[in-house]
Amino acid sequence: MGSFSIHVDTSSHRFLEAVAAGGNIASGIYISAQNICYPDIGYTDFVVVILGWWLQGSSALVDDGDKVENDFMDGPYQFTTEKLGNNVAIRLYQRTVNKTQQVGSTVVVLLNEYNDELYRAAQQLLKALDVLDASGTDIEVLRSTLKVL
After folding, report:
1. What is the CATH number of the domain that holds 102?
2. Domain around 98
3. Are 49 and 25 contacting, i.e. CB atoms less than 8 angstroms apart?
4. How far apart are CA 149 and CA 119, in angstroms?
5. Are 69 and 58 in contact (CB under 8 A)?
6. Whole-number pLDDT of residue 112
7. Which helix (H) or strand (E) element contains residue 127?
8. Which of 17, 48, 118, 134 could share a disulfide with 129, CB 3.0–4.6 Å?
9. Residue 144 in domain
10. Has residue 45 been placed in a domain?
11. Three-state DSSP string of 75-114
12. Does residue 69 form part of some domain?
């Protein structure tokens, strides 16, 4: 079994500025899988939106067992998840002009560990946003998605 974690920046100056500006919140986010930081430790994206997408994908994965494409909003990055019994296979991909190429090897983790990590990252983000009294449609969508899971 491999390891999988989601890292969300909720304390940097950039995060605080993005929250203060309102609108879509761009901040640092990356995933770690078998010693690969993907897309990169310094990568930024619209964290509220993509965590919402990933949580919705996780729900489809559990309910339907279908392979799920989990996109990053900015750039040619995505990871797929595929249910294998009580496990989930995670594959990292980067799209180029000519093809989509897997980055690193497939990581297999327990399905409940994958879901717990998604939930933890979303909870961490929402807690930081609550402290800063942030609000918005995307934040409420993320909050309601968590309640359903």
Report:
1. 3.30.2450
2. 4-134
3. no
4. 9
5. no
6. 93
7. helix 111-131
8. 134
9. no
10. yes
11. CCEEEEEEEECCEEEEEEEEECCCCEEEEEEEEEEEHHHH
12. yes
